[in-house]
Amino acid sequence: MDFSLRYLVRKTVRPRNNLRTNTAMWLCVLAAFSTTLPTVSGEIFTLSAPDEHISVRLRGTAFIPCWLTPSMDAEGLEVRWYRPKTFDNPVLLYRDKQIQKASQLAQYMGRTSLGLREAKSEGLKGGDVTLKLVNVTLTDEGEYVCCVGRDQGYEIAVVFLKVTVLGSPPLMSAVRTEDGSVNVSCVSQGWKPRPALLWSNGSQTLQPGGQLYSSDAHGLVSVQSWILSSSSSAPWVSCFLGLPEGDEREGRVDLHNLPALPDNQIINYSDPLQAAVIILALLLLIAASIIGVLLYRRRGSGKKSNYLPEEGMNNEEAHPLLSTDMVDIETMRQDGVDVTLDTNAAPPYLKVTPNGKAVRDNIDPCPPEEHLYILGTCGFTSGCRAYWEVKLCNNNYEDNNALEVKESWWVGVARSSVKRRGPATPSTGFWFLSSEKEKVLRLNTSPNILLPAIPRPQTLGVYLDYDKGELSFINVDDKKYIVTMATVFTGEVFPLFNPGRGDTGPMRILNIPKTDAVNVPVAKPEAYKSITETPLEQSEMETLLPDNNHSNVKT
């Protein structure tokens, strides 16, 4: 139900122009003592606004509704939107049939206009005086006063704007205990308001062992939760967080192949108090260590934080774990490198084009105990920032039936000393994002972190900042971050590619256009080409065509 405030202050003498602002203010303030309604061309109107608050995502666009009832032309009226106690410095002032900017609050300059409360609205002509506010910040939350009329009478309505923030993707970790149970923790930061949290193993909802909430100085909420689960009951556990408005995050952790706790860290669950204390300490330790080693977040070089710094805040306080989803691809391409596969070191289980730009699985099967991968020729060390792109679908080829869209792959970096057998984790010199036939993206952390709700990219961008210890993965087609791994690199690392066992679709390295980048990697490319794909040579097509008897089973 809408509410209306009906006010009027009669004036027998029209005020001078230099007193107009103060007069309008007092007309709005004194309106509460009136019972007569203002008019437009002799027609009586009231001012209406929603009962409920208006909710908008941080950095989004808000439409704060306000309209005349009955509908009538408001082009000749004064429309003033202001925050409490800021009447003289409005958010927006429409007077004399134009927007007046002289007295506008500085923080709203360039961000406000008159909008439409619905698609079929006629705007001012139909009495719609809705405020449009773009690039919403945390400080924009609160009351907004809509004041409409003329010198003979004004009406006001108050609307509350609520700003919500989608927190960081859940940071998941799991440790096996002595009795075979698994202690799974979930950490997420930067929510507003406090999110609901739900644990699940796919078949049933799980009861958490504990849950902690905390708020920072800006009102952003962090949540930490943990459970004890049986690894035999389900292959994975998920942590789901959501806001009342429908925004949500989900993280999963694979419960297979988890390391057991050392003897001196075995938890005695027979003592509830000891268990609670140790679990809490373990959770905080895990969260602190993983956040230091792997910041599971959507961030990368050159992008902006999801909220504007408040006055008096330093730069560090202005960059929490949440950030904009959009990517400035062109800025990243300034650090573009010409990546070529090391054909001389290619294993017999791979087919590589002569120019070293494309690779796929060969008919010769790779032993199941060995990793199927090939490195690039250019290495990166301290002082390097590098960006490259990999095509993971065949929509640029003439015969779309000749090559399959890729389902299985690894893309990332690795040290030249990595082994083809044994664990492929950061501790052994591997850092990569992988895709599986189950349409799940996975980081090769220990334990693995699954990204089940993120769509498989057709073109994957990789951005390496060696000194920051960050490796970012980007969906180039959507211009959005997938995830960033934060670690400490040691020694020289090289681009890593694994086309997937039995996956006949190729991986193709795209060429990045040459730029005058300030931070040129150590392995500066000799030549750059257009970012657009060029057709494969006939010999390259023949190299990558699937074999009739090629197995299509992926491992």
From TrEMBL:
Residues 319-516 form the B30.2/SPRY domain. One of its GO terms (cellular component) is membrane. Gene3D superfamilies: 2.60.120.920, Immunoglobulins. The keyword Nucleotide-binding does not apply. Keywords: Disulfide bond, Glycoprotein, Immunoglobulin domain, Membrane, Signal, Transmembrane, Transmembrane helix. Residues 546-555 have a biased composition (Polar residues). Its main location: membrane. Belongs to the immunoglobulin superfamily. BTN/MOG family. This is Uncharacterized protein. It comes from Umbra pygmaea (Eastern mudminnow). The lineage of its organism: Eukaryota, Metazoa, Chordata, Craniata, Vertebrata.
